[in-house]
Amino acid sequence: MTSWRDHLSETNRCLYCHEVFSGEVNWTWALGLSEEKLLCPACEGKLEEIKETGCDMCGRPVEQEGHEFVDSTVKRSASFVSKPQFLCRDCSRWGEEDRWKNHSLKHRALYSYNDFLQEVMATFKYRGDAEIATLFSGKLKKLAKSAGRIDVVTVIPLADDRLWERGFNQAELLAGAFRVRHLLVRTVSTEKQSKRDRRGRMAALEGAFRMSEEGERLELSGKRVLIVDDIYTTGSTLRSAASVMYEAGAVEVLAVTVARATGKLKK
């Protein structure tokens, strides 16, 4: 025998695979207190949410293989922490370099960059499906709340030729839930960073950003700045951008991204 609850459902179309699916309608949905389901259960299940971080600075997931830095006796979470204690080898190396040791960057991501998310982001960035940004914008804002006070939010800019080619800046769309200030200008156009190793990324990003006219008008002294971007791979792009804002007087720079690269992916 079916109950009245069985007849209460909302019909949605998955934003990625476009299959129709149904979700239960309840009081939280009716009052607008629950998030709208934009992905079908099958697609949602392929996303690997980062629930525990092993590095307090960059947010490297606990599950990442080949890193023994995680203290298994300490309960971890995906939130920002005010005083980082446990650092992965990469963040320890960043801290040893003169250029970066005074330019710390706390970062958190929503998901591990697995094969499925790689396909989703390719559809978003390279095939022009800009609506996919709505899957993540609200979640990024929720993640950023764990950082505490944020004074200014900005995004990683694209070079003019890349912006013309793509038609939009994916980071700006992902930051749709924030009030964004355009603090940076990209001064050089680089090839896709995914093709480079850590050393190559650092060399390519030397002097890659400067403050924009809007950024120069905005007083950053003593401000906590949040950068929104799509993918964290080695952190070179975000650190290069953060260093410009530190030089402009920011007291702390943090970042949130949709994805955190954790290993080998499909070519």
TrEMBL record:
It comes from the Bacteria. Residues 216-261 form the Phosphoribosyltransferase domain. Gene3D superfamilies: 3.40.50.2020. InterPro entries: ComF/GntX_DNA_util-trans (IPR051910), PRTase-like (IPR029057), PRTase_dom (IPR000836). Belongs to the ComF/GntX family. This is Phosphoribosyltransferase domain-containing protein. It comes from Salipaludibacillus keqinensis. The lineage of its organism: Bacteria, Bacillati, Bacillota, Bacilli, Bacillales.
